[in-house]
């Protein structure tokens, strides 16, 4: 079973207004592994996650999760499918009117009829896994950014999903909490046998945990392979991105007229 | 949990206060009585002119409110106004057949209402009967006109 | 010229589309509250939009009743008809002022807060994450607020009327010396339960639906940035006020204006 892809993205086209964001993206995401989707900011990585999660509908192409087309489901079936997915948002997106405990208990309460004692045990187990069992009574406003993200992770795994989508898990974290998150994602993936998709532009951290990497740019998959394979990729665009060079085929400058002409032209007009 | 208890209490009191307020409006402000509205009987009366009488106007006897005007319509045969009165049930079989109905005005400019005066006939009116002896509304303009024409002819 | 007409057409299409979205939104959110959990959510919102709006509504009602009595008295006394003060205060409150002013206050106090709250939940991805957990935010977040507003505003309107009538009583009877008996009896003789109180309540129910609907829809539909939230909050107050005043004219024409 493990060699059939869990998520398959086929010929995905998506446009927002006049700008085309995806022009035929193809991806297969293997079961039980951590797959990273990387690319410069503004290439629509979060949009891709939303397409996989069924929050946006593509203009063409389809997304299959475990063989089922996400965008051909009724609203009810889609919500049922989402119970098998967890998603970690960039901001954590904890419910601000519930405590840490209630946030993690939320998916359990809505989707199961478990007795209160069992919900308590499960929530404490999940909080223990992210190291925040002691913070259960706090409100989200009292947490630091890193802690909020860990609570959100505990909430995302509360229902023991088969697939977790991470949206920029490392953005804006100090080195310590970044290290904690990297460890957590890796450990959870191994311990629970999850399929993980990590969307990120933090190359170093992502490459250390990913089993397979897709790099997207200009609405297409620019390169894909194992972290080791990408590191030695000959394509200048890939190498610029992977090695973090400031200028190259992906230009540093926003498209503009010639600098000298711009400056002198403006001066000449006065 | 304690916070949610006080919240529940607050909302409960709020809703109770709202319902009590509605009851207050009904009883104190609109003078609604808690009697079932069904115990009434109807009489008809035709007037040559009803002036400004409106549906739901009071019907009184000796100044005491005994019912309301239920309906007003034009009689197509005689071209006068047919007024349906809804009276308290306890008066059924008590009003003599020669009871008169008059359209009166409360004060000089006040609302108009129907006043009933009992006669001496031993036979009584029952549901659906008509009051024959009626007195139309006094229309101020007609009164003035009469007064003026009397002055001229004098 | 053709450009202008086209722009007008586009504005019309945008308006229709927004109305359509708002209608679908209302239909989806209105379907209700699932179970015991929904009851608790509704209760919490009742507390927020109802109980916490009580103070401002009651104080405003008191002052409006007092002003009505004061203004009415100076006019009525010229005709020697100051006994009709109770009637005037009660009718203007029940038919007109209580539903309208309570709805306007409600839009400012509760409607704008609802918009900002839902908007902030949208901006911080709480609504999206709820969807990803497999919970419909329309039922979980929007429906309790919609129903709480729908129930709370008519109750607030009743409170407004009661306090206003007492305010009129304070000024008219205790201060200006209108005979107490005639204050109440004139009121009772002229106020009809169904025609005046009932129609006022119908107005209030309509306003409650419209104001809460506008508030939650603006929150749910806004652009999730801080500028978007502030704009949507302003829009809630402006649109609700216009809708309340406009609908008030239509409802008054139908109920009391003989347009049946």
From TrEMBL, chain A:
UniProt entry tagged with the keyword Nucleotide-binding: yes
UniProtKB keywords: ATP-binding, Nucleotide-binding, Transport
Domain of life, source organism: Bacteria
Domain ABC transporter residue range list: 7-243
Coiled-coil residue spans: none
GO MF entry, a single one: ATP binding
Protein name per Swiss-Prot or TrEMBL: Phospholipid/cholesterol/gamma-HCH transport system ATP-binding protein
Organism, scientific name: Halomonas shengliensis
Phylogenetic placement of the source organism: Bacteria, Pseudomonadati, Pseudomonadota, Gammaproteobacteria, Oceanospirillales
UniProtKB/TrEMBL annotation, chain B:
One Pfam family recorded for the sequence: MlaD
GO molecular function: phospholipid binding; phospholipid transporter activity
Annotated ranges, domain Mce/MlaD: 42-118
Protein name as it appears in the record: Phospholipid/cholesterol/gamma-HCH transport system substrate-binding protein
Native species: Halomonas shengliensis
TrEMBL record, chain C:
One Pfam family of this chain: MlaE
Record's subunit section: The complex is composed of two ATP-binding proteins (MlaF), two transmembrane proteins (MlaE), two cytoplasmic solute-binding proteins (MlaB) and six periplasmic solute-binding proteins (MlaD).
Location in the cell: Cell inner membrane
GO molecular function: phospholipid transporter activity
Name of this chain's protein: Intermembrane phospholipid transport system permease protein MlaE
GO cellular component: ATP-binding cassette (ABC) transporter complex
Listed NCBIfam families: MlaE family lipid ABC transporter permease subunit, perm_MlaE_1
Record has Protein transport as a keyword: no
Homology family: Belongs to the MlaE permease family.
UniProt keyword terms in alphabetical order: Cell inner membrane, Cell membrane, Membrane, Transmembrane, Transmembrane helix, Transport
Membrane-related topology note: Multi-pass membrane protein
Transmembrane segments: 48-77, 146-169, 197-216, 237-259
Protein task: Part of the ABC transporter complex MlaFEDB, which is involved in a phospholipid transport pathway that maintains lipid asymmetry in the outer membrane by retrograde trafficking of phospholipids from the outer membrane to the inner membrane. Probably responsible for the translocation of the substrate across the membrane.
């Amino acid at each position: 079973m493990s060699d059939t892809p869990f998520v398959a993205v086929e010929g995905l086209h998506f446009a927002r207004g006049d700008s085309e964001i995806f022009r035929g993206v193809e991806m297969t995401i293997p079961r039980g592994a951590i797959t990273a989707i990387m690319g410069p900011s503004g290439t629509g990585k979060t949009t891709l996650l939303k397409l996989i999660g069924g929050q946006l509908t593509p203009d063409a192409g389809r997304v299959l999760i475990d063989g089922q087309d996400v965008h051909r489901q009724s609203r009810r079936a889609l919500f049922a499918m989402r119970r098998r997915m967890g998603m970690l948002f960039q901001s954590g997106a904890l419910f601000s009117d519930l405590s840490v405990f209630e946030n993690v208990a939320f998916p359990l309460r809505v989707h199961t009829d478990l007795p209160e004692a069992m919900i308590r045990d499960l929530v404490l187990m999940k909080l223990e896994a992210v190291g925040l069992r002691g913070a259960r009574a706090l409100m989200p406003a009292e947490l630091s950014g890193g802690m909020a993200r860990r609570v959100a992770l505990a909430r995302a795994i509360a229902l023991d999903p088969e697939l977790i989508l991470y949206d920029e898990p490392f953005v804006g974290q100090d080195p310590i909490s970044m290290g904690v998150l990297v460890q957590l994602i890796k450990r959870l993936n191994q311990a629970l046998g999850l399929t993980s998709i990590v969307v990120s532009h933090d190359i170093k951290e992502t490459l250390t945990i990913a089993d397979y990497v897709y790099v997207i740019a200009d609405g297409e998959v620019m390169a894909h392979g194992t972290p080791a394979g990408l590191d030695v990729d000959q394509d200048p665009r890939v190498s610029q991105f992977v090695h973090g060079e400031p200028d190259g085929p992906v230009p540093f400058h926003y498209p503009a007229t010639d600098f000298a002409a711009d400056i002198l032209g403006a001066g000449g007009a006065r | 949990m304690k916070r949610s208890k006080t919240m529940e209490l607050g909302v409960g009191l709020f809703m109770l206060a709202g319902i009590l307020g509605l009851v207050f409006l009904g009883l104190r402000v609109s003078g609604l009585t808690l009697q079932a509205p069904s115990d009434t009987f109807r009489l008809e009366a035709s007037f040559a002119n009803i002036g400004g009488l409106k549906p739901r106007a009071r019907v009184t006897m000796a100044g005491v409110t005994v019912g309301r005007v239920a309906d007003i319509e034009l009689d197509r045969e005689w071209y006068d106004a047919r007024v349906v009165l809804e009276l308290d049930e306890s008066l059924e079989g008590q009003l003599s057949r020669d009871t008169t109905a008059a359209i009166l005005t409360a004060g000089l400019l006040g609302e108009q209402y129907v006043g009933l005066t009992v006669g001496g006939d031993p036979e009584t009116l029952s549901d659906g009967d008509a009051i024959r002896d009626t007195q139309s509304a006094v229309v101020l303009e007609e009164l003035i006109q009469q007064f003026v024409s009397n002055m001229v002819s004098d | 010229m053709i450009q202008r007409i086209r722009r007008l057409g586009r504005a019309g299409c945008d308006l229709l589309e927004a109305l359509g979205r708002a209608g679908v939104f209302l239909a989806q959110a209105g379907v209700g509250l699932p179970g015991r959990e929904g009851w608790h959510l509704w209760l919490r919102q009742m507390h927020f939009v109802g109980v916490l709006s009580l103070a401002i509504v009651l104080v405003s009602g008191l002052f409006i009743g007092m002003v009505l009595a004061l203004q009415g008295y100076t006019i009525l006394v010229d005709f020697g008809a100051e006994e009709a003060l109770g009637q005037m205060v009660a009718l203007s409150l029940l038919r007109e002022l209580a539903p309208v002013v309570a709805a306007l206050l409600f839009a400012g106090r509760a409607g704008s807060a609802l918009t900002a709250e839902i908007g902030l939940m949208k901006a911080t991805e709480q609504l999206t994450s709820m969807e990803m957990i497999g919970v419909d935010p329309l039922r979980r977040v929007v429906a309790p607020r919609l129903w709480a507003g729908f129930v709370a505003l008519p109750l607030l309107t009743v409170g407004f009327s009661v306090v206003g009538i007492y305010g009129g009583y304070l000024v008219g009877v205790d201060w200006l010396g209108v005979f107490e008996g005639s204050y109440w009896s004139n009121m009772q003789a002229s106020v009809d339960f169904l025609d005046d109180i009932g129609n006022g309540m119908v107005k209030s129910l309509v306003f409650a639906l419209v104001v809460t609907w506008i508030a939650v829809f603006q929150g749910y539909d806004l652009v999730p940035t801080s500028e978007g939230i502030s704009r949507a909050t302003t829009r809630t107050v402006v649109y609700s006020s216009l809708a309340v005043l406009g609908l008030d004219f239509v409802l008054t024409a139908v109920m009391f204006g003989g347009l049946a």
